[in-house]
Structures are given as C-alpha cells and as structure tokens.
Peptidase S1 (Almyronema epifaneia S1), 148 residues
Amino acid sequence: MRSKAVAVAIALPLSVVTFCWGLATTAKADYETFELSPNFMPNPVRGQGQSGGTVWRDDCGYVNTNDAPDHILELTADFSALRVSVVSPGDVTLFMRRQGTSETKCVDDSNGTLLPEFVGTWPAGRYHIWIGDWDGEFYPYEIYISHE
C-alpha cells in the first residue's frame, strides 16, 4: 500500500499572524548585539543607531520598549566596573532591561551634559538596551561599552 502526502492549509486570523511576527522580531536587536567577556578587546566596543520611538515613558522620553531592543548586551561573566555611554547631537536617554528579572533602569543627563552614561557593577546575563529621546526627533547616536 502506498502512502500519499497530504497538504493541509490552516487559515489563521490576522491577529495570530501578527503575534507570531512580533515574537520573531524581539529575538534580535535592531542594531548591534554585543557578547562580552571580562577584559574584552577592543575597549571600548562601539555601536550606532537612531534614537527614539513612538512610545512615551515619563522617565525616559520617546523609546520603543514594546519593540525589539536597539542593542542586546550579553555578559558572559560578572563585571565589577562596566561603562555604557551614548554620544548624540540630541538630548537622548539610555533605557536598559535585564532579562530574566525584568529589572529596568533609565539614565538621562550625566556628567553635566545631555548625554547618558551608566557606570557600575553588572551581573552576568542578557540586557536589552534602547536609546530614547525627549522630543521624538530620531537622532543618530553612537553607543560605547567599556570596562575599567
């Protein structure tokens, strides 16, 4: 007896297709992904992108935290002193979410400038990073990550 291959078509509502598409986009960064181990080189590593978004957060301005992150930072070990800083012609913000804990942090003006910088102890793990801005202008930026 021979078997036949049977094709089955399934009609899914658009909302299911959209949901599945959304899951796929959150798995990778819009710009760079950094996987860093202690004493990484070059020091600093550099990335770039465009700030802002359509979601307003009172603590961080316009930032697309409902979308894929701008950058993913994967730390293979704990860092006692890691610096993340952003350079841009606009008033930008730095929003970070630690995966697995939902811990978030928004950094705004640092060192007497309109540019954000965060220096501190970072546990190993995965972090999603978005660069926002206060006026919805979508500024170009460079992000620098360095160890001390």
Summary: The chain has a mean pLDDT of 84. The domain at 31-147 is CATH 2.60.120.380 (Jelly Rolls).
